[in-house]
């Protein structure tokens, strides 16, 4: 880690300025201007799950940290969650417009077309660039990098990035290994063009993947591989599957490494981090990552107890809820990190801006 050379009131912001956040030095940075989130009203408790699965409240709480989760009702799709979160983020930003809509999701409404154009249209943004990103639980971080790139290149001046998943629509309701963990929700941010030294500027984004382990987390059927083969899918292959124990190990390893790299590339030290906003995969994973980064529990944001693992939505939902509840406030130096199917992972930094989370 090197010290800043330019005099500045805030050394962390000075590092951002010197290193360049998201584009070429002197280029435009992506700055968070608004944030919103939405969870569907339906709630499933651990006791509800005990009634239909060979599991227990005690196992779920002690192994995952989850007590309740929100689930969509029949007829509600990912776009419905995304539209509501997007509407709130735009209201939070104080201006209705965006010239690109990026949606990170694993549970698109249909295999084709992308869901983002529909979300854009329902938000009154017909005509703008709109596309989906498939990076499973790391979708929000891949989305931040994409949105920052659009802004740095001048393709867009204002991007609505939504991360939404209705995971319960692809979960096998009888698979206790996934049904107790995954849930539904959405989070969204508005990113505007700004400078890297502003609060809210997205720092350097670290991204990575390992496709040799793509079978750790997968939906085997429904894609071109299965459709172009002569054999019909085996029963249950349309459902999401996860090899939990193997995934666990990789999650810790990659979130740690990506976090350390993102902090270094931002010019921060780990001790500078006021809040860790990690993908809410499992409370034990989060505790391990925080501990190994040397971050005490009070610096760790967590909402897994009441929302479960909401896939791509996890981080923006966590940020929005934490900001609304006052656990995340303007000036906090936040480290974001995620890991999931692909395998794919990422991390970045942001100095939390003055925004009202809706
Ligand atoms: O979001 C994308 C990234 N995802 C992750 O990072 C998730 C990573 N993995 C995990 O969070 C954990 O591995 C799980 C929560 C999925 C599982 O926890 P675990 O501590 O790794 O349990 P395990 O898979 O090693 O299973 C331990 C035992 C097994 O029984 P035996 O073989 O010891 O007799 C399982 O069959 O717990 C059993 N088990 C359950 N028991 C009650 C597995 N699921 C359940 C359940 N209720 N729901």
UniProtKB/TrEMBL annotation:
Molecular function GO labels: 3-oxoacyl-[acyl-carrier-protein] synthase activity; beta-ketoacyl-acyl-carrier-protein synthase III activity
| Record carries keyword Cytoplasm | yes
Name the Pfam families on file. Answer: ACP_syn_III, ACP_syn_III_C
Residue ranges of region ACP-binding? 280-284
Might you give the EC number(s) for this enzyme? 2.3.1.180
Show where the Beta-ketoacyl-[acyl-carrier-protein] synthase III C-terminal domain sits: 264-352
* Domain (Beta-ketoacyl-[acyl-carrier-protein] synthase III N-terminal) ranges: 131-211
The record's Gene Ontology cellular component field reads: cytoplasm
Catalyzes what? malonyl-[ACP] + acetyl-CoA + H(+) = 3-oxobutanoyl-[ACP] + CO2 + CoA
At the top of the EC hierarchy, this enzyme's class is transferase
Q: Which InterPro entries has this protein been placed in?
A: ACP_syn_III_C, ACP_syn_III_N, FabH, Thiolase-like
Checking CDD domains in the record gives: KAS_III
Q: Does the keyword Cell membrane apply?
A: no
Family the UniProt entry places it in: Belongs to the thiolase-like superfamily. FabH family.
Summary of the function given for this chain in its UniProt record? Catalyzes the condensation reaction of fatty acid synthesis by the addition to an acyl acceptor of two carbons from malonyl-ACP. Catalyzes the first condensation reaction which initiates fatty acid synthesis and may therefore play a role in governing the total rate of fatty acid production. Possesses both acetoacetyl-ACP synthase and acetyl transacylase activities. Its substrate specificity determines the biosynthesis of branched-chain and/or straight-chain of fatty acids.
Its recorded name reads: Beta-ketoacyl-[acyl-carrier-protein] synthase III
Organism of origin: Streptomyces kasugaensis
User: What is this organism's lineage?
Assistant: Bacteria, Bacillati, Actinomycetota, Actinomycetes, Kitasatosporales
């Amino acid at each position: 880690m090197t010290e800043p050379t330019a005099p500045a009131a805030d050394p962390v912001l000075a590092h951002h300025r010197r290193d360049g956040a998201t584009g070429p030095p002197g280029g435009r940075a992506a700055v968070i201007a608004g944030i919103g989130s939405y969870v569907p009203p339906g709630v499933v408790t651990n006791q509800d799950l005990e009634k239909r699965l060979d599991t227990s409240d005690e196992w779920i709480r002690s192994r995952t940290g989850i007590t309740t989760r929100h689930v969509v009702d029949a007829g509600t799709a990912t776009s419905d969650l995304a539209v509501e979160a997007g509407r709130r983020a735009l209201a939070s930003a104080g201006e209705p417009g965006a010239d690109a809509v990026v949606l990170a999701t694993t549970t698109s409404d249909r295999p084709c077309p992308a869901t983002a154009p529909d979300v854009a249209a329902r938000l009154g943004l017909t005509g703008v660039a709109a596309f989906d990103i498939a990076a499973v639980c790391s979708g929000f971080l891949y989305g931040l990098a994409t949105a920052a790139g659009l802004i740095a290149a001048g393709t867009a001046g204002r991007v609505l990035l939504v991360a939404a998943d209705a995971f319960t629509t692809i979960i096998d309701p009888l698979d206790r290994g996934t049904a107790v963990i995954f849930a539904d929700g959405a989070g969204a941010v508005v990113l505007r063009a700004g400078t890297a030294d502003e609060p809210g500027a997205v720092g350097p984004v670290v991204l990575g993947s390992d496709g040799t382990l793509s079978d750790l987390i997968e939906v085997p059927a429904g894609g071109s591989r299965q459709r172009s083969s002569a054999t019909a899918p085996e029963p249950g292959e349309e459902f999401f599957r996860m090899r939990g124990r193997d995934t666990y190990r990789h999650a810790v390893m990659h979130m740690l490494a990506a976090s350390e790299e993102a902090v270094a590339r931002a010019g921060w030290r780990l001790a500078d981090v006021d809040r860790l906003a990690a993908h809410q995969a499992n409370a034990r994973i989060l505790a391990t990552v925080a501990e190994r980064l040397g971050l005490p529990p009070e610096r760790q944001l967590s909402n897994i107890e009441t929302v479960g693992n909401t896939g791509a939505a996890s981080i923006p939902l966590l940020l929005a809820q934490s900001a609304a509840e006052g656990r995340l406030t303007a000036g906090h130096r936040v480290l974001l990190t995620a890991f999931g199917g692909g395998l794919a992972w990422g991390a970045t930094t942001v100095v939390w801006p003055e925004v009202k989370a809706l």
